[in-house]
Write a structure and sequence with these properties.
single chain, about 425 residues, alpha/beta, Rossmann fold, Helicase, Ruva Protein, domain 3, 3 domains, five-stranded parallel beta sheet, 14 strands, about 50% helix, extended
Length: about 425
């Protein structure tokens, strides 16, 4: 529910505006003067302020000056019984969203409030997008080890072509980063890069996700929808965890690659597509082919070029560079000064068995930054490594104790019920 602050020294005006706005389902608060207004704005969050100009203690124009410092993003609708052109112009120059003379026309006031809320919503959306951009995956492959140097050289050679690439590597090694590097160095860099996590989409929905569907083709298909192949036209389609794709979807992907066209689920019209395929997997697809889980003909279509992303344990010489990179990036995100990692602390990080690879290292660096002091010592890393080892051992014990995931889940649910009973 949107929240509006009415600032006016006349109680009758405040009451009238409050009644009208509450009838429109807005949440309303009041302030009888400028100083009270500023106090409330510091204590609470409002979407719009309706501000009188002539008030005791601090008038509306002075409040506007303070708001430009405290909350420059909040829309302010100024009202006054002494309204004239000059006053209105001055109010707008100071940043007011609009100016309305007293007694206010209630219809105009409501329209102005709605428009101001639209502006407020757009500002919030803009800030959200800016935060997302700041937190967007970094497209810099950090490291200078021989393994990473070979990978970078291969990308530089392959990226300008349209050759299909299969990226292999364990979870957390940076396979998505390789795909993005490839796209940004290709002739398709001005086109989109569309990502599909084949493991995260149920088998019955993967075909609709990839090829789109027509209205009414299945329950819940209320309108036509373009699939990822169409959305990636003239760009790159990144099929992550391709080894988890169902055999029926694999057959359709193979056909799409052979013909450069797709058909939406429930449709009969062929749609031409021009996409470059980069796929990734943490599985050995040769073994999956032998088990009958993956089509050999699709494998040969996808694996024109095969790139192996080394695990972090295979490139521990890159850890100092990675720590510096994550330290700078994480501290910038949090708006704090960069921490100092002592050389001994970095060497201690190089001794850890990184089963989660780069993703795990980043998480560890972030925790050390949050929980540590301005300097991260060898002891800080050792203490953390012990707790991490204990956590891993407890998980391994659980997985050894229970033969299936359902048994483990039932055990955890029972333990949770015991915990709730004790807590109550």
């Amino acid at each position: 529910m949107h929240k509006i602050l009415i600032v006016d020294d006349e109680r009758a005006i405040r009451r009238t505006l409050r009644d009208i706005l509450e009838m429109e389902k807005y949440q309303v608060d009041e302030a009888e003067d400028g100083l009270t207004c500023l106090v409330k704005l510091k204590q609470d969050k409002f979407d719009v302020v309706i501000l009188d100009i002539k008030m005791p203690k601090m008038d509306g124009m002075d409040v506007m000056d303070r708001l430009n410092e405290l909350r420059p993003d909040i829309p302010v609708i100024m009202i006054s019984g002494h309204g004239d052109i000059d006053t209105a112009v001055e109010a707008v120059k100071k940043g007011a969203f609009d100016f309305i003379a007293k007694p206010p026309d209630l219809n105009r006031l409501l329209i102005t409030v709605r428009n101001a809320l639209d502006k407020s919503t757009l500002i919030v959306q803009k800030k959200t997008l800016q935060r997302k951009v700041k937190k967007a995956p970094q497209t810099n492959i950090v490291g200078s080890s021989p393994e990473i140097s070979i990978l970078k050289e291969t990308i530089q050679k392959v990226a300008p072509t349209d050759a299909r690439v299969l990226v292999q590597g364990s979870n957390g090694t940076g396979k998505e980063l390789v795909a993005r590097w490839m796209h940004e160095r290709s002739s398709r860099k001005d086109g989109p890069i569309v990502e599909v996590n084949c493991a995260a989409i149920p088998a019955e929905l993967i075909e609709s996700e990839l090829f789109g569907h027509t209205k009414g083709s299945f329950t819940g298909a209320y309108k036509d929808k373009a699939g990822k192949f169409e959305l990636a036209n003239k760009g790159t389609l990144f099929l992550d965890e391709i080894g988890d794709m169902s055999l029926s979807a694999q057959a359709k992907v193979l056909r799409a690659l052979q013909e450069n066209r797709i058909t939406r689920v429930g449709g009969d019209k062929s749609i031409n597509v021009d996409v470059r395929i980069v796929s990734a997997t943490n599985k050995d697809l040769r073994k999956e082919i032998a088990k009958g889980n993956f089509r050999e003909d699709l494998y040969h279509r996808l694996a024109v070029i095969v790139m192996k992303v080394p695990s972090l344990n295979e490139r521990t010489s890159d850890i100092p560079e990675l720590v510096d990179h994550f330290n700078a990036h994480i501290c910038k995100e949090y708006g704090i000064p960069e921490k100092v990692f002592e050389p001994a602390a970095v060497k201690e990080l190089q001794k850890i068995n990184w089963t989660g690879n780069i993703r795990e290292l980043r998480n560890v660096v972030e925790r050390l930054i949050i929980l540590g002091t301005s300097e991260i010592s060898k002891k800080d890393v050792k203490d953390f490594a012990v707790s991490m080892s204990n956590h891993r051992n407890s998980l391994e014990d659980l997985f050894e104790k229970f033969s299936t995931f359902s048994e483990l889940r039932d055990h955890l649910e029972k333990e949770y019920e015991k915990y709730k009973a004790v807590a109550v």
